Automatic annotation (TrEMBL), chains A, B:
One of its GO terms (molecular function) is serine racemase activity. GO terms for biological process: D-serine biosynthetic process. It comes from Acidiluteibacter ferrifornacis. This is Pyridoxal-phosphate dependent enzyme. The keyword Lyase applies. The keyword Lyase applies. Belongs to the serine/threonine dehydratase family. SUPFAM superfamilies: Tryptophan synthase beta subunit-like PLP-dependent enzymes. InterPro entries: TrpB-like_PALP (IPR001926), TrpB-like_PALP_sf (IPR036052). It comes from the Bacteria. Keywords: Lyase, Pyridoxal phosphate. Its cofactor is pyridoxal 5'-phosphate.
Length: 315, 315
């Protein structure tokens, strides 16, 4: 099983390398002092399209190249996955049609258009989004690339953590946020292959804590009415990702929006980089649990940097 | 002359290396497309204390180590030089007393205190600041480190551009902002030594354009009533720096605050990094003069990232 994962992750990395950035690990003496631990930040905010999502989308879409039955690529998303699919489709020479909710920010719609994709606006419900994609699949023969519940997407996201272990050894804890679980599942698979002594910490906002509640109860609970500033983490964990996460996560911590905003501000101030709120969740977890992480070497994934600069939450 | 400069710059670099970061060069395909040129951004916003000022302060202060007649270090500054002197003095084992105007932001005062320096608040006038420093020199036997009109500070700043030429060759234009002129003079000296075919472009806000006016008129005009968002560039060019700049600059461009804010926003959005307004002046110059820079390879210094996050100027 692990060999299969290793082969898939390594193929993915080789496949996507020309289309992604190998993002740097940043650190800050003052954040280390504040936390009482050694923190390494994997800067996926510097990734193509500004988020790790490019890795998974590129891995899934590049494999469809040359398949003549596929006329184009479609997905539904209001966020980073939409941009990732649009750019990856463009790089692979596919047309893309992206279903976006009509309340998506204009700046995100413009970014997706900028990568050459067509936009189909729909009502802002999951049903309308799925219906929109179904129609594109049946009418135009396009292939659907799910944002997280897709093995090739998961293997693509796994390359992010592979790069961390290639650059650094002896990491005690790997911390990543959990939304749909694609990044977390990929991170777990890479950890099993490349750094099996590293423990995995899931990080969630209290306002979208379905993975935490599921982990506590042992049941796959879905997220209803999420309410958090971390707009990349609103969704429920996917079916493929769920058992991988439940079997391998060492602990899941939750943090409030106030703690997320504070960690976000520290990141802007000390690392001098732009991140979106979801990216700040792992640092918020560390700062809220200093005794637990004291003296350890931690890797934290900064998942993306796509944020509305006119509405930064700093007071 | 040039050999003397080379020796001084290389000694400076060797001296300060343990105390500074070798900052990276960032680039962005989308900014290159927008500009129609190849832009390399030297990220001094990631430098210790968040600005290039650490280089010059460290070079000046480290050389005073072991001089028993010097009882401590003093300077006056409301901004990045204050933090740089405080941290460099701490690293060199000196006490520091920094004169700061009473209207300096609390966050900057706290940062200087955080590096172990004592603060003497004074009225927000140049006279009061200079009087404050005079008193500390005569009363306590402290040495004054001028923010820009000091050869060792200039040689320290020169190491920034030296790092650019070590990483990249065939740069057509080097662009840096001009405030007191320490960074610009140092950049010129390094260019003469390491990349003599590179042309130097000075960049100023229209609201603090004393170098531009001096360059046009051939006279050393002082800055009166500066009015610009680029708060690191309010001062007049210093006496040492003035002839170096006038003799070697290829051109000086000015840009409005509106253009500076727009370039700042592009930097946050595309490079995903936090910069202060002064850092955005060179990119604003490029975007306002696309025909001039078309197809060229440019290095732009991002001077610092110390900005009040609660008051970002994005609409």
């Amino acid at each position: 099983m692990s060999t299969t994962h290793q082969t898939a992750i390594e193929s993915a990395h080789k496949r996507i390398k020309p289309f992604i950035h190998q993002t740097p690990l940043f650190s800050s003496e003052s954040i280390n002092q504040l936390a009482g631990a050694t923190l390494l930040f994997k800067c996926e905010n510097f990734q193509k399209i500004g988020a790790f999502k490019m890795r998974g989308a590129a891995n899934a879409i590049l494999q469809l190249k040359g398949n003549l039955s596929i006329k184009g690529i479609t997905t539904h998303s209001s966020g980073n996955h939409a941009q990732a699919v649009a750019l990856a489709a463009q790089k692979a020479g596919f047309q893309a049609k992206i279903v976006m909710p009509s309340n998506a920010p204009n700046v995100k719609i413009a970014a997706v258009k900028g990568y050459g994709a067509e936009i189909e606006l729909c009502e802002p419900t999951l049903q309308a989004r799925e219906d929109g994609v179904e129609k594109i699949i049946s009418e135009f023969g396009f292939a659907f690339v799910h944002p997280y519940d897709n093995w090739e997407v998961i293997y693509g996201q796994a390359t992010c953590v592979k790069e961390i272990y290639e650059a650094e050894t002896n990491i005690d804890y790997l911390l990543a946020p959990i939304g749909g679980g694609g990044l977390m599942a990929g991170s777990i698979l890479s950890t099993l292959v490349y750094s099996s002594t590293t423990k995995i910490i899931g990080c969630e906002p209290t306002g979208a804590d379905d993975a935490f509640q599921s982990w506590k109860s042992g049941k796959h609970l879905l997220q209803t009415n999420p309410n958090t500033i971390a707009d990349g983490l609103l969704t429920s964990v996917g079916l493929i990702n769920f058992p991988i996460i439940m079997d391998n996560v060492s602990k899941i911590f939750t943090v409030t929006d106030e703690q997320i905003i504070s960690a976000m501000k520290i990141t802007y101030e000390r690392l001098k980089i732009v991140i979106e709120p979801s990216s700040a969740v792992p640092l918020a977890v560390v700062l809220a649990n200093k005794a637990f992480f004291k003296g350890k070497k931690l890797a934290l994934i900064l998942t993306g940097g796509n944020v509305d600069l006119r509405q930064l939450p700093f007071q």
